[in-house]
């Protein structure tokens, strides 16, 4: 499931991914990404991973397509997770993925710190 957080702005999108990620989730996220990509300049993305339990095959395909499609519009991406396995995976994949996409990627344990890093205000 993907939840779009209320603190999102035109220049910063904050989402929480939890449970199983499905193609329907990407269908919900696409308009938010398109809105920001269509505006002038780039936007920052904060993705919080919380109790992720699985991915549909179609969702993996969509993930790869989204990465390719929106890479030129994203300036910085903050990944938030306190899950040890996801933290290690994020640390291992984040920097090479960021380099490949031309996006600065950084992992955080707390949402507030990540939101501040991407230029957001108070996340309450």
Strand content: 25-35%
Largest sheet: 5 strands, mixed
* Total number of beta strands: 5
Q: List the secondary-structure elements in sequence, H or E.
A: EEHEHEHEH
Shape: globular
Distance between the termini: 21 Å
Question: Which structural class best describes the helix and strand composition?
Answer: alpha/beta
- Enumerate the strands of the largest sheet in spatial order, edge to edge or round the barrel: 1-2-3-4-5
Give the overall pLDDT as a whole number: 76
Overall helicity: 40-55%
Number of helical elements: 4
Q: Spans of 5+ residues with little confidence (pLDDT < 50)?
A: none
In short:
The chain is of the alpha/beta class and 124 residues long.
Description:
This protein is an alpha/beta fold and 124 residues long. Helices cover 44% and strands 31% of the residues. The protein has helices at residues 23-38, 57-70, 84-101, 111-117, and strands at 2-4, 12-21, 43-55, 74-80, 104-108. It has a five-stranded mixed sheet. Strand 1 (2-4) and strand 2 form a beta hairpin. The protein is globular. The protein starts with a strand and ends in a 7-residue tail after the last helix.
């Amino acid at each position: 499931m993907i939840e779009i957080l209320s603190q999102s702005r035109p220049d910063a999108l904050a989402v929480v991914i939890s449970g199983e990620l499905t193609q329907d989730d990407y269908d919900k996220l696409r308009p938010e990404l398109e809105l920001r990509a269509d505006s002038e300049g780039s936007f920052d993305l904060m993705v919080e991973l919380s109790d992720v339990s699985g991915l549909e095959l179609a969702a993996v395909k969509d993930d790869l397509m989204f990465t390719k499609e929106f890479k030129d519009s994203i300036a910085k991406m903050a990944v938030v997770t306190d899950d040890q396995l996801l933290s290690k995976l994020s640390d291992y994949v984040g920097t090479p993925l960021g380099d490949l996409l031309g996006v600065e990627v950084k992992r955080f344990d707390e949402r507030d710190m990540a939101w501040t890093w991407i230029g957001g205000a108070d996340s309450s």
